[in-house]
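Good morning,

Attaching, inline, the backbone tokens for the sequence recovery test we're adding to the shared suite. The designed sequence is right after.
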């Protein structure tokens, strides 16, 4: 997902309505400081406290190589 959608307020509102129905927290676009590297980044909500680079770093730990299994 790109950050472009979060700059479109009407789209963001629609997205938040949908998230509310799904029981998910609202997206609140705000400049926050990353908890890990202290860099300022665009946060999408209170649950989003790590910058993009650190989030990616976290996720890499449990990324499974999808093509590692099977055909040889
Ligand atoms: Zn960071």
């Amino acid at each position: 997902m790109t950050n472009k959608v979060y700059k479109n307020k009407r789209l963001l509102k629609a997205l938040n309505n949908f998230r509310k129905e799904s029981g998910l927290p609202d997206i609140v676009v705000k400049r926050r400081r990353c908890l890990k590297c202290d860099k300022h980044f665009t946060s999408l909500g209170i649950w989003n406290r790590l910058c993009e680079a650190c989030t990616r770093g976290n996720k890499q730990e449990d990324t499974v190589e999808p093509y590692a299994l099977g055909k040889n």
